[in-house]
Design brief:
The chain is an alpha+beta fold. It has twelve helices and nine strands. It folds into two domains: about 90 residues; about 230 residues, Bira Bifunctional Protein, Domain 2 (BirA Bifunctional Protein, domain 2, 2-Layer Sandwich), CATH 3.30.930. Helix 1 runs parallel beside helix 4, helix 2 packs antiparallel against helix 4 and helix 5 crosses helix 9.
Length: about 350
């Protein structure tokens, strides 16, 4: 066995010296020290030797294994060092070269519009309040004076999860949660994503964003609503912007109105942007319906309030002259780079 062991050591040392890559070294490790390797086979063969010869033979085999493993480790270290030298030589870095410009992202137009709206209303003393996107039917409809069977419930093409749980169709549900707390007065806006089963086209999407506002206090009038929205319009579209209110109907407000602003492209003279009308519709609003107050435990004889809701995408489309809402969701870098 001794002669055979010495031959294995000589062969292993020679093969290690000739190895050029880590793959070569790994093959040698498996050949000599692996589960089916030559050293392993010798150790397994100790059981066939007479008992008195096993200690001496085992010591010799372990010594040989140590020699081979040491040679393999040294060879690995040498290969690593050589590889690093070659890498350093090929990857020289000239620190005097100018740095490459790293492309940076841009704020999305929706985010720009939202930050501007939040700045305007926070400046008027409003609080920003968020609510859940997965909502109960009660908060999304019933507490806003839209009971079962109401036509407005069908018009919104709601995504229902089950009979009572849905994806909210309006952020007004956040206002209901706030009214339930009973902390008056309230001055809040509630931005967020809403969902409706609409076909995708240039002006519609099944998922879009709204910013809805609510004010409740003693002595609030329609004049307060008009003044608030006039400030918002001038801040968004320029000091020369004019506002007009047209009678409308919403279940949760009475009286209700739709709001137009004078076209900020032509100054109200009429152009292709406003379709020759000189006015652009931007939002709906009204005085909070007394029944909504009653549903939420607020005395309508003591408190009054107003509410309004604006589509965030609509503000961004108008403000930046974007003619297709789908551009807002395509993640096209050519489009986003413009903001």
């Amino acid at each position: 066995m001794t002669g055979n062991l010495e031959q294995i050591i000589r062969d292993a040392q020679k093969a290690v010296k000739e190895a050029a890559t880590n793959e070569d070294i790994e093959k040698l490790r498996v050949k000599y020290s692996g589960k089916k390797g030559e050293i392993t086979a010798l150790l397994k063969g100790l059981k066939d030797l007479p008992p008195e010869e096993r200690p001496r033979a085992g010591e010799a085999i372990n010594k040989a294994r140590t020699q081979i493993e040491t040679a393999i480790a040294q060879a690995q270290a040498g290969i690593r060092e050589k590889t690093m030298e070659l890498r350093l030589a090929s990857e020289t870095l000239d620190v005097t070269l100018p740095a490459e410009e790293v492309p940076q992202g841009h704020t999305h137009p929706n985010t720009i519009a939202l930050e501007e709206l939040e700045r305007i209303f926070i400046g008027m003393g409003y609080e920003v309040v968020e609510g859940p996107e997965v909502e109960k039917d009660y908060y999304n409809f019933e507490a806003l004076n839209i009971p079962d069977g109401h036509p407005a419930k069908d018009e919104q093409d709601t995504f229902y999860i089950n009979g009572d749980i849905l994806l909210r169709t309006q952020t007004s549900s956040a206002q209901v949660h706030e009214m339930e707390k009973g902390r008056l007065p309230i001055r809040m806006i509630s931005p967020g994503r809403v969902f409706r089963s609409d076909a995708v086209d240039a002006t519609h999407s099944p998922s879009f964003h709204q910013v809805e506002g609510l004010v409740i206090d003693k002595g609030i009038t329609f004049a307060d609503l008009k003044g608030t929205l006039e400030v918002m319009a001038r801040e968004l579209f320029g000091e020369e912007t004019k506002v007009r209110f047209r009678p409308h109907h919403f279940p949760f407000t009475e009286p209700s109105a739709e709001v137009d602003v004078s076209c900020f492209k032509c100054g109200g003279k009429g152009c292709s942007f406003c379709k020759g009308e000189g006015w652009i519709e931007i939002l709906g609003c009204g005085m909070v319906h007394p029944h909504v107050f009653e549903m939420n435990g607020i005395d309508p004889d003591e408190y009054t309030g107003f509410a309004f809701g604006v589509g965030l995408e609509r503000i961004a489309l108008l403000k930046y002259g974007i003619d297709d809402m789908r551009l807002m969701y395509d993640n096209d870098i050519r489009f986003l780079d413009q903001f």
